[in-house]
Amino acid sequence: MNIKSLLLGSAAALAVVSGAQAADAIVAAEPEPVEYVRVCDAYGTGYFYIPGTETCLKIEGYIRFQVDVGDQPLNGSASNDSDWDAKTRGQVQFTAKSDTEYGPLTGVIVMQFNADNASDQEAILDSAYLDVAGFRAGLFYSWWDDGLSGETDDIGSIVTLHNSIRYQYESGDFYAGLSVDELEDGFYKSGEGPNNVGVAFGLGGKAGAFSYQLTGGWDFDNQDGAIRAMGTVDIGPGTLGLAAVYSSGPNSYYSAAEWAVAAEYAIKATDKLKITPGVQYYGDYYVSGDDFSGGDAWKVGLTVDYQIVDNFYAKASVQYLDPEDADDSTSGYFRLQRSF
């Protein structure tokens, strides 16, 4: 009888405990649905859909470390006459694309961060523009920013980033366009101020192993303009590049000389190594004032590019400039850059 009572009591106790535990049991909530990022392959690699939209976004950029060397101080400080200067740059670009009845609508924002040292740093808007049906408006680089592949040629504007509006027609391997540029930070003659307006054109394309470009611009405030022709062709183990430019007078599109010719040969030594010697000759080299009053000048240089691994490369360049009416100079740099 005692054993029976003990067993019944134990069973009752277990029932009470089990009931209490059942009452305290935690029921897991149903997980909320998650919208995963979808790949957008309509505009090339690297794009993905912004969740909840039909807009495709691409994020890319680079990190650069560079050491400049030269005969003159390179850090802009008269109190420090060092002939070398190390600096670092980080750049990130956002490109958004979506389909419209007029074709793809593109928006681009490029942010650049430069550091000469811990306290001397700047963040700038390197580009920001919208593009649809061949029309582009915003802050972007002009056709005068293009050049040969090496570092020797000096055939572009001092400042090539402008607030502009342009139309560019493209068909296969050919393009042609016209732009109106605000030239506030360009070249100014005596009595002129930062209110310059310019009109530029660009056309170019490819035909087999040959590529070409013709660029021109007229600076209304300075009442002078410039025109440039450039072409490259694959020959042997490398690519030959030739360029010529003429300027009617110093202006925001070209102010280095009245005329100049440049040549280079980019040698593909290996799959990872490219060696590019170059030379340029200036007629009536600009020194100062409102005219091309200097004598002639010539420049020679060498640029070496080496791809260490995918998306990581090294570049070294050295240039020698010898003007007739100014001091000669040697300058160059070494660069490491990782792109993503």
Q: How many DSSP helices?
A: 1
The helicity comes to under 10%
* Overall pLDDT: 89
Low-confidence stretches: none
**Shape type:** globular
Structural class from helices and strands? mainly beta
Radius of gyration equals 31 Å
Placed side by side, the strands forming the largest sheet appear as 2-3-4-5-6-7-8-9-10-11-12-13-14-15-16-17
Q: Strand percentage, roughly?
A: over 45%
Distance between the termini: 83 Å
How many strands, what sense, and barrel or not for the largest sheet?
16 strands, antiparallel, barrel
Number of DSSP-assigned strands: 17
Helix-strand sequence: HEEEEEEEEEEEEEEEEE
In short:
Helix content is 6%, strand content 56%. With 340 residues, the chain is mostly beta strands.
Write structural notes for this entry.
- The chain has 340 residues and is mostly beta strands.
- Helices cover 6% and strands 56% of the residues.
- The chain is built from 1 helix and 17 strands.
- The chain has one helix at residues 2-23; strands at 48-49, 56-70, 84-100, 103-115, 121-132, 135-141, 161-171, 174-182, 197-207, 210-219, 224-235, 238-247, 257-268, 273-285, 297-309, 312-323, 329-339.
- A 16-stranded antiparallel beta barrel has the order 2-3-4-5-6-7-8-9-10-11-12-13-14-15-16-17.
